[in-house]
């Protein structure tokens, strides 16, 4: 059983300030849809049907976006704006089971995941970071879900995380893994290091925003110390590995777009615009001046 997906969206998004002072970075538009909708679509298209959001003060609009706005519906209906009404209904009908929990103080990603313990319960679950878009077919989480289920035939109590090869200059921005290659894109992880220097990094395989966890992660998140004001998810995963929980890393097929910083956000917009024939023409008209 793998049907619950967790979206930790409680961070301050400081790299996108000043706009994130009032607009959650997960709601910043990539064309005419907020970034969060892209990852919600990925989860839906990967067969997940129970959605849990970890929000914080000022980020309620993320869940409102998927809720039914009866006032807006009747306004559009009265004015016979059928196509807009259909558009709104399409968005509002995406997430059938939505739960939310508040992380009162943003004490790191590990702490955000732990906040959802009661809503997740004792079953394996997926985590998607709302600012890490992955354009892939089949969707990245679907690739991972299938692999996770295949692995279940040979192993138990396992977890699976997404990996991406990054350049050596970038390793200090990520959690980096060391492990044994099982196939071209599957690693059995032995060790993880959070934000190592290029000299210390055991590889160039970075942990990116997709995870499928065994529920024991919650017990481990309670045991790790706070570092620099944050509980790191990587520390809990490392402790699980040390105590015998199998962790696998999957080098996914697809293009990852990190919308959590200004350059990555701009790149994500260009990427999706280039896939739309009309917008592509606009992009081409600019290339002359560039
Ligand atoms: P980031 O590392 O991108 O942190 O978190 P952030 O606060 O959102 O952004 P910056 O670094 O200040 O610019 C990765 C994901 O984890 C969530 C974020 O919302 C984001 O989706 N997160 C982070 C939480 O839910 N709670 C936290 O305490 C920290």
TrEMBL record:
This protein's record includes keyword Nucleotidyltransferase: yes
Keywords: Nucleotidyltransferase, Transferase
GO molecular function annotations of the record: UTP:glucose-1-phosphate uridylyltransferase activity
Catalytic activity from the UniProt record: alpha-D-glucose 1-phosphate + UTP + H(+) = UDP-alpha-D-glucose + diphosphate
Any one of the GO BP annotations: UDP-alpha-D-glucose metabolic process
Domain Nucleotidyl transferase residue range list: 10-273
Transmembrane regions: none
Pfam families: NTP_transferase
Keyword Transferase: yes
Domain of life of the source: Bacteria
CDD domains hit by this protein: UGPase_prokaryotic (cd02541)
Entry EC number(s): 2.7.7.9
PANTHER family hit by this protein: UTP--GLUCOSE-1-PHOSPHATE URIDYLYLTRANSFERASE
Family per record: Belongs to the UDPGP type 2 family.
Name this polypeptide is given: UTP--glucose-1-phosphate uridylyltransferase
Organism: Caldimicrobium thiodismutans
Lineage, opening ranks: Bacteria, Pseudomonadati, Thermodesulfobacteriota, Thermodesulfobacteria, Thermodesulfobacteriales
